[in-house]
Each structure stands twice: as structure tokens, then as C-alpha cells.
Design a protein that fits this description.
disordered N terminus; mainly beta; 369 residues; Immunoglobulin-like; 5-stranded mixed barrel; 9% helix; OB fold (Dihydrolipoamide Acetyltransferase, E2P); elongated; 3 domains
Length: 369
């Protein structure tokens, strides 16, 4: 019997605890203050916030409570009311100056004075919807609009998650030995100064096997270092409330692929007197996808043939690609016409190995004698 109890405990420890865990962390519900306090935790993460759009000079900001954050609207429209904003947090100081995610952002102009990590934050907005001001306390309402309830005594219901055993929140308040996280759907808050013990239950904040229990918590709402906390005064067990299924979060915007480009050619642009039996070599900044080369290379003479020269046939050539040197070599089946200008073009549709486009490109040179 004791072995069966031990096996059951192990299975509970390994299994997802509660519906929130089984669904996975779809997104991070946060406040603007929390993003500023823990930029490393939220960098490149999907976030959801409540607030209002305000203007600060030429910038658009999202204001949540008493803190603002610069936003970059990627097709989303602002609204002159409370809004629910989805987006991706960018800690500019943790990105390189040439990062394409900053292409539409003019906040940093001097790469020599690049901000330090945490110094400049940008919210890359992917969606905006109308939000209602929270009037009834809930875990979600506190997580998104804590300023609406700060200093008030509230009663909320959520799942016991131990001492942040599942990483629901970026840090811990460290107020007492019994601090624990309370979660409901995709929102979470801290409960402090209250031992999770009562009639018929005594939960350990360090044991995953105890997580998943539904608790009713009464306490006073506070904010501390960006964390929303409830200074608890009463706890009781309860049943799970009926709630709609969590929405599926759209994936983070993909990093735009930087186009590949030509870095070396032989002959060079504008070169004259090139031997008529020469080949053309074109080297790229990144490797190419060989399947995209066919049909994307065009070679032609420029201008009419000299009056005393026979009318040339079309320029015929063969090309090969060397993955080791990232280079295309063009060999002509016949010697080039003397003293003629030749144009080599790379057309749109040529791609690098990672799917990035290759910038359309042209080389012009002249054959010699």
C-alpha cells in the first residue's frame, strides 16, 4: 500500500498540475511596470497588457498605471480608450544595431551610444482590442490592472502554484516563508504573509505534488518592484470556476530575413579590356539555395553591334555554383564579341540557403581584343 502511495505521488509530480499547466504558457500577462522591472525575463516574449495610448512628442506610448512604454505599431491602430495590447517586448540594448526588428524604430540613431540592456524598451505591437476597466477583482483583473485595486481588500479564486514552481512570474517578493503564486487561466499574482493551510489541507510551497488545488484568497492588493501581490488574511479551498478556454496566441513575429548580396565579382563593375574567353565569378555574402538559381541569371550585350561586326547570336552560357566559396561561375560557350559591353543580371527570385532574398544586381563590363 505504501508503494502505491509513493507511486501515485511520483506520477502527480511528473504530470501537469491543473488545466493552466496542461495548456502551457500561452503568453505573459503583465503590466508596463513589470516590463520595466524585469526586461531580461520578457525580452522577445509574447506579452499582453492593458492601458491607454498616449503621445509623447513624436512617439506613441502605452500607459499602464503610472508607467509608460514606447510602442511600435505594426499595422495595428491606436484607440482613444482603454485597450488590450498584444505584442513582443524588445529590450533594445540586448539587440544588435542592425537588427531588422528595429527597422521602423527611430529612437536610437547612434550605434556608438547604443543603450545598455534594460535602458530602452520597445513594445512591438501585433494586435489591439478594446478593453474594459476591471470592476470586479479576479486574478486576471489584478494581473492586468492592479492600480484599479491597489490598497483594497479583495477576495479572488485561483490555483495554488507553490513558490513560483512553474516560473509563472519573473521574480519573488520575498515577504515571508510562505509566499506562493496563485494562477487562473493565463494570469498569476503573488500571495504573501499567509500560510496555505486550513481545515482539511496543509500545502507546501516547495512541493509540486501540492499544486493545482483551487484556493479562495482574501487580502489587500499591493505592488512591489513591479510584482502584483496580495497580503493575505484568509484562505480556504474551493472548486474551479467555469471559464472560457484560453485563446491561442499568435506566434511572435518572425525576424525579417536579411537579404543576401554580392560581395565580390571578377571582372569588376565597369572593367574594360576583359579577355573574350574570360568567365564571370560572383561571390555572395551567404550561401545560396541552388534550386533557385536556374532562370535567375541573365547575360546580354549592351547596345547595337558595331557596323563592321557580324550580327552576334544570342549570348549562350553555362553556370555552376560552388557552395564552399558561395560563388556562381558563368562560362560562355563562345568567345565574347570584341569591344562589346556585356551586362550580367541577377533577377528577383534568387534566394539564400535560409530563404532570404538575394538583392537584384547588375554587373556591366567590356570585352577587349
Amino acid at each position: 500500500m505504501r508503494r502505491l502511495q509513493l507511486l501515485a505521488a511520483i506520477l502527480l509530480l511528473l504530470a501537469p498540475s491543473g488545466s493552466a499547466t496542461s495548456q502551457g504558457a500561452i503568453r505573459h500577462l503583465a503590466t508596463v511596470a513589470m516590463l520595466h522591472q524585469y526586461p531580461g525575463y520578457f525580452h522577445l516574449q509574447n506579452v499582453l497588457l492593458h492601458g491607454e495610448f498616449v503621445e509623447s512628442g513624436a512617439r506613441v506610448m502605452l500607459r499602464g498605471g503610472e508607467r509608460d512604454i514606447t510602442v511600435l505599431l505594426t499595422g495595428a491602430k491606436t484607440a482613444a480608450r482603454a485597450v488590450e495590447v498584444r505584442g513582443q517586448l524588445l529590450d533594445v540594448g540586448r539587440l544588435e544595431p542592425g537588427d531588422l526588428r528595429l527597422a521602423g524604430y527611430d529612437g536610437v540613431r547612434d550605434p556608438e551610444r547604443w543603450p545598455r540592456p534594460g535602458e530602452e524598451l520597445l513594445l512591438l505591437v501585433t494586435g489591439v482590442a478594446e478593453a474594459q476597466f476591471a470592476t470586479t477583482p479576479s486574478v486576471r483583473g489584478l494581473a492586468l490592472q492592479p492600480w484599479r485595486f491597489e490598497g483594497q481588500k479583495v477576495t479572488i479564486v485561483g490555483q495554488f502554484r507553490g513558490r513560483n514552481l512553474f516560473g509563472d512570474l519573473p521574480s519573488a517578493p520575498g515577504k515571508s516563508r510562505y509566499d506562493f503564486v496563485l494562477r487562473s487561466a493565463d494570469a498569476a499574482v503573488w500571495v504573501t504573509d499567509l500560510r496555505p493551510r486550513g481545515r482539511g489541507f496543509d500545502l507546501s510551497v516547495d512541493a509540486r505534488v501540492d499544486t493545482g488545488r483551487w484556493l479562495q484568497i482574501t487580502g489587500t492588493v499591493t505592488q512591489d518592484r513591479g510584482l502584483v501581490t496580495i497580503v493575505g488574511s484568509a484562505v480556504a479551498t474551493t472548486t474551479a470556476p467555469e471559464a472560457p478556454a484560453a485563446e491561442e496566441e499568435a506566434p511572435s513575429p518572425a525576424v525579417p530575413l536579411e537579404p543576401a548580396e554580392v560581395v565580390f565579382t571578377s571582372p569588376y563593375e565597369g572593367e574594360v579590356g576583359v579577355p573574350v574567353t574570360s568567365s564571370v565569378r560572383i561571390q555572395f555574402s551567404r550561401g545560396l539555395d541552388p534550386a533557385t538559381i536556374a532562370g535567375q541569371v541573365r547575360v546580354s550585350y549592351v547596345g547595337p553591334a558595331p557596323p563592321d561586326a557580324p550580327q552576334p547570336a544570342s549570348l549562350e552560357f553555362l553556370h555552376t555554383y560552388d557552395a564552399g566559396t558561395r560563388a556562381i561561375e558563368i562560362k560562355f560557350t563562345q568567345p565574347l564579341d570584341r569591344f562589346r559591353a556585356i551586362r550580367v543580371e541577377l533577377l528577383e527570385g534568387l534566394k539564400a540557403f535560409d530563404g532570404a532574398p538575394v538583392k537584384p544586381w547588375t554587373l556591366t563590363f567590356s570585352a577587349g581584343s
